[in-house]
Amino acid sequence: MLMDLCELSPSYVRSIAPYQPGKPISELAREMGLDERTIVKLASNENPRGIGPRTRAAIEAALGDIARYPDGNGFELKQALAKRYGVDMGSIVLGNGSNDVLELVALAFLGPGRAAVFSQHCFAVYPLATQARGARSIVVPAKNYGHDLDAMAKATADEETTVAWIANPNNPTGTFARHEEVEAFLKRVPERVLVVLDEAYNEYLPPELRGDSARLLKRHPNLVITRTFSKAYGLAGLRVGYALAHPSVADVMNRVRQPFNVNSIALAAATAALDDMEFVARSYAENLQGLRNLEEGARGLGLGYIPSHGNFITIRVAVGGKSAPEIYKKLLKRGVIVRPVGGGYGLNEHLRVTVGTAAENERFLGALAASLKE
Ligand SMILES: *Cc1c(COP(=O)(O)O)cnc(C)c1O
After folding, report:
1. Cβ 228 under 6 angstroms from ligand 1
2. pLDDT at 19 over 90
C-alpha cells in the first residue's frame, strides 16, 4: 500500500539523491564515544569566529517578540540591503538561507520541458533543485575545476534552457571567475535565460576581486544575485539569505515564497550583522591567514590542492595507495570532521576542509599527517 502511494510521487522526485550535509558534531560524538568539546568540525564552511557582540545583542532583543509572526516583508533588513547595494527594496527577495532563494528560482522558473545549465563540480543544490522541478540538467564539463563560462554560454542556446546556475566562488572547488568574465557571459546568454549568480563567499574575496555585481542588474534584467548571512556573517544556524533581481523577477519569486519564510530572530540578527563591517573585515583577514596556513600545511605533506577563493580548501588526499574516504574515516577517528566531495561532486580523490581557527587548522593538519602515515 505504502509502495503504491510513493509511486504517485513523480519519478524525478523519487530519484533525487539526498543532500549529504557535513556530519554534525553531536553525531560523531555519539558514534565514536567522543567528548563533543574535543571534536573539530571543518565540514560546512561555517565562520569559526561565531557572531559579533552587536549581533548577539540584536538576537537577545528580538527574543521578546517571538510570540508574534515575523514581518513577512522583512522591511528593516530589506531597507538596509537596498541602501548597501543601491537597489530598490522591490529588487530584494529574502530567504530561509540563500538555499531557500535558490529553491524559489527553481520553483518559479523551472519545470518539466525546461532545462538548467550548470557546471561539473558545482554546488550540490543546483542539480537537486533542478531535478526536484522535473527540469532537465545540462552539465558542462569543468575547466581546471572551475566553471567553463564559454562552454556554459554555448549550452544555454538549448531552447528549453530557462536557468543557468553559477557559483562564484564555487563550492566545493573554491574557483573564481573575474567580474569581466561574468559580464561577458551575461552579454552572450539569451535574455530568456535567468542567470543565477550565487555569491555566498563574496565577502571572502580580496577587495580588488569583489566586483560590483549589483550594478550589472541595471543592464541585465535576467540576472539574479544571491548572497547569504551563513558564511562570513556567522549566522548559518539562523538561516537567512537573499536575492537581488529585477523587480519583476523578484515579484515572481516572492509569489512562491512562504509568507513568513525568514524568522524574526534571523531578520533582527541579519540587520545588525550587515552593519558590523568590522566583524566581516576581521573574518576576512583571519580566513586569509588560515587559508595560507592550510595551503602551506598541504604542501608540507606533499599534497596538491585547488587554489581557493572561499573559506575552505579542497585538498587531494588520495596518495600513497590510500583513498579519500579512507582518510576521511581516519580523520573522524581523530575527532576531525571534514567534507567528502566524491559522489555527486565528482572529486573522488579530494576532501574539502573549512578554514577554522588557527588552533583548529593546526589540529586538522596534525590529524591529516597522522592519517596519511598510518
Ligand atoms: C553555503 C552556500 C550557500 C548558502 O547556504 P545558506 O546557508 O542556505 O545561505 C549557497 N551557495 C553556496 C555555493 C554555498 O556554498
Report:
1. yes
2. no
- Set of cell numbers at residue 247: 523587480
Q: Dig out the grid coordinates for 58 from the structure.
A: 540584536
Question: Between the CA of residue 141 and those of 144, 216, 308, 351, what are the distances in Å?
Answer: 10, 26, 19, 20
CA angle 27, 32, 36 (to 5 degrees): 60
Residue 198 in contact with ligand 1 by CB distance below 6 A: yes
> With a 6 A CB cut-off, is 171 part of the ligand 1 pocket?
yes
Please name each of the domains of the chain with its CATH number. 17-46+278-373 (3.90.1150.10), 53-275 (3.40.640.10)
What is the band of 167 on the pLDDT scale with cuts at 50, 70, 90? very high
Q: How far is the CA of 102 from the centre of ligand 1 (A)?
A: 9
pLDDT band at 53 (very low <50, low <70, confident <90, very high): very high
Which of 47, 126, 171, 242 is the best mutation target for the ligand 1 pocket, counting ligand atoms within 8 Å of the beta carbon and taking the most? 171
Short-list 362, 366, 364, 319, CA closest to 339: 364
Q: Which residue's CA is minimally distant from atom 11 of ligand 1?
A: 200
* 80 Cα–ligand 1 center, Å: 21
| 53-58-60 Cα angle (round to 5) | 95
**CA neighbor of 105 nearest in space, from 246, 224, 186, 185:** 224
Q: Is 241 helix (H, G, I), strand (E, B) or coil?
A: strand
Which pLDDT value is given to residue 2?
A: 62
Per-residue pLDDT at 343 exceeds 70: yes
β-strand pairing of 115-119 with 92-95: unpaired
Ligand 1 pocket, 103 CB below 6 A? no
Task: Give the contacts of 200 (CB within 8 A, at least 6 positions apart).
Answer: 98, 167, 171, 226, 227, 228, 230, 231, 241
Output the pTM of the full model. 0.96
Assess whether pLDDT exceeds 60 at residue 1: no
- Please state, rounded to an integer, the average pLDDT across all residues of the chain: 96
